[in-house]
Specification:
Number of helices: 1
Oligomer: single chain
Radius of gyration: 19 Å
Structural class: mainly beta
Largest sheet: 12 strands, antiparallel, barrel
Number of strands: 16
Helix content: under 10%
Strand content: over 45%
Distance between the termini: 50 Å
Order of helices and strands: HEEEEEEEEEEEEEEEE
Strand order of the largest sheet: 1-2-3-7-8-9-10-11-12-13-14-16
Shape: globular
Length: 292
């Protein structure tokens, strides 16, 4: 497997992981007329990756930076709309340099564009006040990103395929001492097109409210498993950075602090502790949010 193919493989799943994280968490509706907005920056830079058999190999340093807008809006007391829009997406790779001669084998490149966008609806199946609320979501992945840039057409901010995710969430609220807390879990199915394999998605989330209700600490464990039913092989050519038949399990920690009743800041770190064809370095996110 050559260096460019390793780069393609490495960058593939992190976009999928990003999409998973940005979906609305938990089964709770936003509430009629209420809106949540978040402006954030997400990035990852890595010089190593999990191979297709789960080992860690080095690669030319690669990175992606997404400046995104995430929003939720309550159309009714049970129906919430969601949007994840990376309006500035930058993907780059450094120079590939020979370890013996120091010669630049492949020059580094970068592209900038908008990224693939997720638009969704979440409907709470249980009535308000249910002890264990349950919701169903439909998320449409819109191929608005650049499916092929750079000299070798292997730099991308999108995969060029329209996918649909069906997801079910359930949760339970409880107390940890005097602090409000919750635990939620979800399962989902991602229907992918253009020869990519469909996927099973899963995740759990635990949050606790601290510092006189100003600070939320949230931990997540989530993952993707491929059904391996696509027509593409595992090796994706240089026209796409998105590998097929990928799998990973990741964990993240997030802090969200309210500086007022409606405005706050958040920080997140995420890393994969098991993977196939995924970067073996953590990703980071910073944002400012508002409950309107």
């Amino acid at each position: 497997m050559n260096k460019q193919i390793k780069y393609i493989f490495s960058l593939a799943v992190l976009i999928l992981a990003l999409s998973t994280q940005m979906m609305a968490g938990g089964p709770w509706p936003k509430g009629k007329g209420k809106t949540y907005l978040k402006l954030g920056e997400w990035w990852i830079v890595s010089d190593q990756h999990f191979t297709d058999n789960g080992q860690i190999d080095p690669n030319v340093t690669v990175g992606i930076f997404n400046t995104f807008l995430y929003g939720e809006h309550g159309f009714t007391d049970r129906l919430t709309g969601t949007l994840y829009f990376p309006f500035v997406s930058r993907t780059y790779m450094n120079n590939l340099i020979s370890s013996t001669t120091g010669e630049v084998l492949v020059p580094g490149e970068a592209i900038n564009s908008i990224g693939d966008t997720d638009v969704g609806l979440k409907y709470t199946l249980t009535k308000p006040g249910a002890k264990i609320p349950v919701s169903a979501s439909l998320v449409l992945g819109l191929p608005l990103g650049n499916p092929g840039g750079g000299t070798a057409m292997n730099l991308q901010t999108g995969d060029g395929e329209f996918n649909q995710i069906v997801r079910f969430d359930a949760a339970k609220s409880f107390k940890v001492g005097k602090n409000n807390s919750y635990f939620s879990a979800y399962v989902g199915f991602n229907n992918r097109n253009n020869g990519f394999s469909d996927e099973f998605r899963f995740g759990t989330e635990w949050g606790v409210n601290l510092a006189n209700s100003k600070l939320w600490m949230i931990t997540r464990v989530f993952g993707v498993e491929s059904f391996k039913n696509g027509t593409l092989g595992t090796d994706v050519n240089t026209n796409s950075i998105f590998a097929n038949n990928t799998a990973f399990t990741s964990a993240s920690v997030e802090a969200a602090y309210y500086v007022s009743k409606k405005v706050g800041f958040s920080a997140n770190i995420t890393g994969a502790f098991r993977g196939r064809i995924i970067l073996a370095s953590p990703s980071y996110s910073l944002g400012i949010f508002a409950d309107l």
